[in-house]
Amino acid sequence: MKYINKNIKNEPEILREYRNTTPNASYEKGFGDDLKKALLVEQGCICAYCMKRISLERKNGKPKIEVEHYKSQENFPDKDLDYNNMLGVCNGSSGKIEHCDKSRNYTKNGETHSLELKRLNPLQKINSEDLITYTAFGKIKSKFKNSDIEYDIGILNLNNENLREQRETVLKTAIEKFKDKYPQKKDKKWTIRMFNNEIEKYKTLKKGKYTPFCQIIIWHFEKLKTKPKYQ
């Protein structure tokens, strides 16, 4: 999960005008691609929860991006049209496995309801990046073994096997590229400067996009920086 710096200036005019001029306005209108384009720009084209690539490109007849309300429409109807409560997310499925916003939903007595997250929040830096850690095999964990964080990871199903494998693959690829770029020799060792260069690269947008699952790569190089042999 990566921190999203929301900016009300990015809100599409169609959403603002509809909210301010329509009696009993509700999100059912949808707002088409205008809203989704704004979220893609704001998030660097990665899912607010799992960090998969999202886009307006269509798959099975629908764009590979959906609009998510961080505070659910069911439990917080007053935030139904609040741009600062809206996130761009993936389609929420890997084969038959549901994750992200899709796994927040559950059915009771024939009706669909939404579970609220307790701590993880991509709209708050300390609750999106600073409370999470990873393993070299692509698993996401609470940095401080916090039960609320573990609950949220479970609700979003971020450790399903497909996502875990994708994170592991992205990390391995980044490591191999780093090794090719900086081959270790007797007279040329890895340095903190090299790690910082990689961290900055994955923190930076490239043609308006972040690298999918970029946070696990950043975590890896931040971890290398702490090893005594590189001090």
List keywords for this structure.
231 residues; two-stranded antiparallel sheet; alpha+beta; globular; 6 helices; single chain
What count of structural domains?
1
Distance between the termini: 28 Å
What sort of overall outline do the alpha carbons produce when their principal axes are compared?
A: globular
Strand order of the largest sheet: 1-2
Low-confidence spans: none
Q: What would you report as the Rg, rounded to the nearest angstrom? A: 19 Å
**Beta-strand level of the residues, as a percent range?**
5-15%
H-E order: HHEEEEEEEEEEHHHH
Helix/strand-derived class?
alpha+beta
Strand runs, count: 10
Helix content: 25-40%
Instruction: Report mean pLDDT, rounded to a whole number.
Output: 93
DSSP helical segment count: 6
Main β-sheet, in a few words?
Answer: 2 strands, antiparallel
Describe the structure.
By secondary structure, the protein is an alpha+beta fold. The protein has one domain. The protein is 32% helix and 15% strand. It contains six helices and ten strands. It has helices spanning 13-21, 32-43, 147-155, 161-181, 192-203, 214-225, and strands at 55-59, 62-64, 66-69, 86-89, 93-94, 97-98, 105-108, 111-114, 132-134, 140-142. The strands form five sheets. It has a two-stranded antiparallel sheet with strand order 1-2. Strands 3-4 form a two-stranded antiparallel ribbon. Strands 5-6 form a two-stranded antiparallel ribbon. Helix 4 packs across helix 6. The two termini are 28 Å apart. The model has no long low-confidence stretch (mean pLDDT 93).
